[in-house]
Amino acid sequence: MFTKEIYIARRNHLKSTLKSGILLFPGNGEMGMNCKDNWYPFRQDSTFLYYTGVNIPDVYFVIDVEKDEEILFGNNPTPEEIVWIGATTPLEELAAKAGIKKVKPLSELANYIKNGKQQAKVHYLPPYRSETTIQLSELLDVPVQEVAGAFSVALTKAIVAQREIKITEEVQEITKAVNITAEMHTYAIKNGNAGKTEKQIAGDLQAIAIGGGGNISFPIILTTNGQYLHNHATENLIKEGDLVLCDCGAETGMGYAGDMTRTFPASERFTTLQKEVYTIVLNAHNSAIDALKPGILFRDVHLLAATKLVEGLKGMGLMKGNVEEAVAKGAHTLFFQCGLGHMMGLDVHDMENLGEPYVGYTDTLKKSTEFGLKSLRLGKALKENFVITVEPGIYFNPFLIDAWKAQGKYTDFVNYEEVEKFKNFGGIRVEEDILITKEGSQILGNPLAKTVADIEELKNA
Amino acid sequence: MFTKEIYIARRNHLKSTLKSGILLFPGNGEMGMNCKDNWYPFRQDSTFLYYTGVNIPDVYFVIDVEKDEEILFGNNPTPEEIVWIGATTPLEELAAKAGIKKVKPLSELANYIKNGKQQAKVHYLPPYRSETTIQLSELLDVPVQEVAGAFSVALTKAIVAQREIKITEEVQEITKAVNITAEMHTYAIKNGNAGKTEKQIAGDLQAIAIGGGGNISFPIILTTNGQYLHNHATENLIKEGDLVLCDCGAETGMGYAGDMTRTFPASERFTTLQKEVYTIVLNAHNSAIDALKPGILFRDVHLLAATKLVEGLKGMGLMKGNVEEAVAKGAHTLFFQCGLGHMMGLDVHDMENLGEPYVGYTDTLKKSTEFGLKSLRLGKALKENFVITVEPGIYFNPFLIDAWKAQGKYTDFVNYEEVEKFKNFGGIRVEEDILITKEGSQILGNPLAKTVADIEELKNA
C-alpha cells in the first residue's frame, strides 16, 4: 500500500537533497499511433509516478523547494468531456492521495514558470518524448534543440540516489509484477510448441499481463532466433527442434516491472547439445547470483559470469587457452555480446531515461567503450535494496562468427572450426529479478522452472 | 496481393493530380513509452504505407513530381546493429517491391530538401507526432509552432480523393481484418461473463489480434459502462445482469483495420428491458444499412438512424411528440450523442490525421457545430468502394440526463420521469464494416451474431 506518507517522505527527501530551485516534472500525454487521437496505451512518466502517484495524462508537477510549495497542474474534465468519458477522479482527490495540497489549472503553469525562473533555477530531467521537449522549449523559452542538453544533473543524481533504493512496498509491488511475469513464462513453456507462430504465443503472453491489471513492461521477445538479442516476435512458425527464447515482463497497474527470461525446447525435450549449452548458461547464472552482495561491483559479477561461460565453452571445445586471459581480452564477447543485467523498478531498465552514467556508473567508475562491456548497463557497486536482473547468455550469432573468423579475431581463444557447427544453434539466456539484501541477495517471486529437468517437466505436464 | 504495379499506379495517379512540387512523406519512428528505447509497437504512417508499402521505422519518401523522381531515404543497419537485430531486408529490396528505384541514405535528405525547395513547393500532410513536427521544422527551416499550419491542402485533398476509394485488394485485406475482429467478438460474447475483469477479456481479445499477425486497430472498448462512448477496459469486475459493450478491431500486418461493436449480456440472457432497447438499436442499424448507396449523403443516413431510434424510444415511452421534429431539433442526442459512422481503411478512422473537413465533408457541405452532428465524422455523399462503419447506439448517460433535465431541455420530446429509470442501464451499440457497392452496400466479413436470439445462442453454445 503506497500511502500518502510514502509520497510525502519521497518529496521531502528530494527537497532536502536539492535545497534550492524549482523542480519541474512533466507528466506524459497520450501518444497517437497513426493519428493524434488513436492512442497507444497511456504510460505515465516513472519519476512522475514516483513522486505523485498520479497516473493520468496531461498533468505537470512542480516543487518549489525554497517556498516549500508543491503544485499539481492539470484540468478536470469539462461537463462535455464527462459525457464522453464518464466521471473521473477529481485532480484534487488524486493529489490528496499523495499529500499534495495545491492543484491549479494547466493554463497557469506557463506564468508560474515564467515568474519562477526569474527567482530560481528550474530543474528538469532529460526529456525522452518530443512532445515534452516542445513543451519544455515553450515553458522555458529555450530553443527545441537546446532543451535536452540543459537538463539538471543535480536533479538527475538526486533522483537516481533515491529511486535506486527500493522500499518494502516497492519490493512487494515488483514481486507482484514478477509473479505475473512467471505466469507468462509458464504459459510460454507449456504452449510454445511447433506449428504456432511466435506472435501467437506473444499475444497470449500480453493477454496475461493485461489481465494482471497492467500491461507488458517492454516489447515481448519470443523468438526461435534468440541469438539476436533484440528480436521481437514475428510471423515465424515455430518448428520441432527449435529453441525458443522468451524474454518478457509484466508491469503492474502502478507501473512496477518484472523482467524474466527462459529458453526452452519447442519439442518435448532439449537435444543433448541444447542441454549442454543450457547448463553452461545456468551455471554462469547461478554463480553470478551467488556472488551478489552489497559492495561488490556489478561489473565484476558480469566478468565472473563471463568466466563461467568461457570455462563451459572451453569444456565443449568451442574455446581454448587461458580462461582469465580470454575474458580480460574480451574473447567471450563472441558468444556473450551484452551485459549481465540492469536495475529494475518503475522502469524495466530502471531510470534508463536518466542516463547510464548516473544510473549504472559513477563519477569515478565510467562505462567501458569496449565491445561487450559497453553494453553493460550497470557496473557500479551494489547496495542493499537495489533490485536488479541477472541474465547471462550464449548467443551463436552467425554474422559475428563469420566476421570475426574472417578478421582472425581471438584465434588464440576461439576454435572457429567447432564454432562453425553452431551457426544455426540459436541463443540461450536465463534471467531472474533479484533483490540485494544485507548479506547477499534474494530471487524475487514464486519459483519458476529453471533447470533442464524442471523445464522439461513443466513442458510436458 | 499488393503488387508493385499497385504502388506505382497509386503514385502515378497522385503525380497526375498534383502536377508539380516536391511531395515529402515522413515515415514514423519508434516511440518510447517510459524512456526513449522502450518502445510501443511500431506503427508506420498510413499514407506512407499506401504509397510505398515500406513498414519499417526511420525512413522518408520523396516524390519530385516535376523531375518524376522517387526516392526512399533511409539507412540499412550497420554491421554492429546486425549483431543485435539479425539481418533485415535491405532497403533496396523493400523499395523494389513497390517499384521505387532510388534509395539514398537518410543523411542526404536534408540537402535534398534544402536544394529542392529553392525550385519547387514542398508539400506535406498535417503531422500528428511531435517527433515529425520537429523533423519537418528542421528540414524546412520553419519554426516548430508553424509546421502544422503550413501543411499542403492540395496534397491532402488529392490523397483523400485517392485513399477513400478502395480497390479490390484493399477490400480483401480489410475483410481479413474484419474476420479477425469477428473472432475477437465471438470470444468476448462467449467469455465476457460475471466474475472476470474488463481487462481480462480485453487482454484476451488483443491476443487474438496479435496472433492474427497484426495488432489492435485502436484501444479496446470492453466495458459495462457502455453509456460512456470512449470507455476503455478497466479493472472493473463484470457482474451478473450487466450489459457488456465491446467495440474493438484488429489491424492486419499491412495496417488495414477492422472495427465492430456488439453489446451482450454478462448473464446467459438479455433482460426484457435490455432486449427491448437492443432491438431498437438493431432496427436503426439495419435501416441505416438498407439506405446506403452511392450518392446518398451519409449525414442523411445518420438522421434516418436517429429517426428510427426516436420511434423506438417513443414506443417505450421515453420520448414523445413528433418524431421528425424531435430529430430536427436534436432531442435524440440525449441518447445518441455521437455520429453514425466513419470511413475505414488503413486507419480505423480512415485518414483522421488529414482532417475531417477533407475526409468527411466538402467545400460546400461543412460539418455542423451542433451537439451530436458535430461528432459525425462523415457527412458527405457516399461513393462506390467507400468502406465505412455503421454504428448507431442508445446511451443512457446519467450526467447528461441530470444536466438536461435540470435545464428543462427538450421537455417537449423527452419523458424525463421515465428516462430517470434508465440511469443505470448502460449503453448499446451495434456496428458493422460496410463496402459501398454500385447499387447499395455489402457487409464485410463472415457473419457474426447480431440479433438477440443469435447472441444468446452464441453466448450459451
UniProtKB/TrEMBL annotation, chains A, B:
UniProt-listed SMART domains: AMP_N
GO MF annotations in UniProt: manganese ion binding; metalloaminopeptidase activity
Keyword Protease tagged: yes
Stored Pfam families: AMP_N, Peptidase_M24
Keyword terms of this UniProt record: Aminopeptidase, Hydrolase, Manganese, Metal-binding, Protease
Superkingdom field: Bacteria
GO BP terms in the entry: proteolysis
InterPro entries listed in its UniProt record: Aminopep_P_N, Creatin/AminoP/Spt16_N, Creatinase/aminopeptidase-like, Pept_M24, X-Pro_dipept-like
Domain Aminopeptidase P N-terminal: residue ranges: 2-133
Keyword Protease attached: yes
Cofactor entry: Mn(2+)
The protein's Enzyme Commission number: 3.4.11.9
Enzymatic reactions: Release of any N-terminal amino acid, including proline, that is linked to proline, even from a dipeptide or tripeptide
Record's GO cellular component terms: cytosol
PANTHER family with a match to the protein in the record: XAA-PRO AMINOPEPTIDASE 3 (PTHR43226:SF4)
Family per record: Belongs to the peptidase M24B family.
Name the record gives this protein: Xaa-Pro aminopeptidase
